[in-house]
Amino acid sequence: MKGSEIYIGWENSTGEYTVGDYFGIGHTQPRLNESPNHSVVALRDPAPSWSLQSFSFCRPTTLSSNGNSITPTAGFIFAGSNSAPSGNRDSARIRLEEHDVRGVFQPDFSAGSTVTTTGSGINGSNSTIGEFSFPHGILSPSSSFSYQTMLITHGSLMFIAWVISPFIGIYIARYLKNTLGHTWYILHVFFMAAVTGAGTIASFLLIFLYSPDRFSTDDSTVGDYHEKIGLAVAITVVIQVVLGFVCNAAYDPDRTLIPWWDQLHWWLGRSLFLIGVLNVYLGILYYQERFDAVWAIPAFWGFLVLGIALFATANYKDSKDSKSMK
């Protein structure tokens, strides 16, 4: 809906309807038009019996500014939601939930004609207009797997892959080699390759399979950074996993110096971990621009502090043991 003008109506506290004028900026809350170009008017015809909500408004056909003009070839989309907006419903400054149904239609409003079309819609009743048109991703959106659900799934996979799994994988490699023997390597590969590596790729592909156009970040600076960093991380994590297997294959138990490829694997992994954690944080901020998620930031910092405390404790114990051996 980027670049579109949107009129949204809902029942207010008086039983009448508030209609707000907004500008679409993509897959996020639309921006309120501070100088609306419409006015709410009474219904010209009685609302049909199947209608859940009916309201009417008028606006100029041609606008020189502060809105989009209506032309004979203009396309129109519609959407409806079973969820009431949050906030003051007597004001146009509200927060909208994701719509349940949507579609397109193309009447010639510029000719002053009346267009009435119906279709199956909200709550199974004839309450929507026009022909349904959904994004063309392999994973088509549905009521059980909406755009918000997809984002939560993507974010959960990335959270596990970068905020939880690396702490465990790096901890095993750094502190448990002598304790676990060769098992440390198997566990390290599991957490860093299977969980972090494969989880990152799966999460990245999820967005593309849901709908290719979802890579748009909707004029969001945070989203733009998140997208670019995420792409770089997804590519680099593949290199890092391959490098890990190379280091294992080239390992020499009799070596006296640490080879450069081992050091590259160490420092690339640490850098990638920090960047991955940062990008998870950006992803949470990007999600919060669209949906309520007051729990996400506390959860992020909680796991991060827990991981840092784990490493600090292990490092203190390791340092103490080293001093006692001297």
From TrEMBL:
Segments crossing the lipid bilayer:
151-173, 185-209, 229-251, 271-287, 293-316
Q: Which GO terms describe its cellular component?
A: membrane
Q: Which SMART domains match?
A: B561
Q: Which Pfam families does the UniProt entry name for this protein?
A: Cytochrom_B561 (PF03188)
Q: Residue limits of the Cytochrome b561 domain?
A: 115-317
* Localization per record: Membrane
At the top level, the lineage of the source is Eukaryota
What UniProt keywords are attached to this protein's entry? Answer: Electron transport, Membrane, Transmembrane, Transmembrane helix, Transport
Q: What is this protein called?
A: DOMON domain-containing protein frrs1L
In its UniProt entry, the species of origin is given as Boothiomyces macroporosus
